[in-house]
Amino acid sequence: xxxxxxxxxxxxxxxxxxxxxxxxxxxxxxxxxxxxxxxxxxxxxxxxxxxxxxxxxxxxxxxx
Length: 64
Known about the structure:
Domain N-acetyltransferase: 1-64
Distance between the termini: 30 Å
Radius of gyration: 12 Å
Organism: Faecalibacillus intestinalis
Protein name: GNAT family N-acetyltransferase
Keywords: Transferase
InterPro entries: Acyl_CoA_acyltransferase, GNAT_dom
């Protein structure tokens, strides 16, 4: 169901309900990182997902 606009719809719903959002995304998931950056999320810091051993980013969005 990728590239059909569902993620944007769900994200906009969450943005309407909150003033700030946080998420984790794997660093190797360039497509997801690009999507969230288009949606005005910013990388705050990098880390490691202990459950998987994968490097990730914490990204945030804040209502302007």
